[in-house]
Amino acid sequence: KLDVALLDGPALADLVTMTVFLIDTRHTTRMTEIRTEIFGKDFPASAAITVAGFADPSIMIEIQGIAVIA
Description:
Layout: E1 15-22, H1 28-39, E2 45-50, E3 61-67
Parallel strand pairs: 1-2
Antiparallel strand pairs: 1-3
């Protein structure tokens, strides 16, 4: 499930960069497929980083995004 919380202001189209933190490198391919489904071929600059875990052990992925609003 994708949960995107955007208040008055930025939209997904305003993202210029995103960093994806994953606990398992096996999910990188699926994450890339989902990113393409959402953004198409014109997606923001991105990086995928494998981490040992998160504070909440039930979390498998965290995405940090930076948007520019003109």
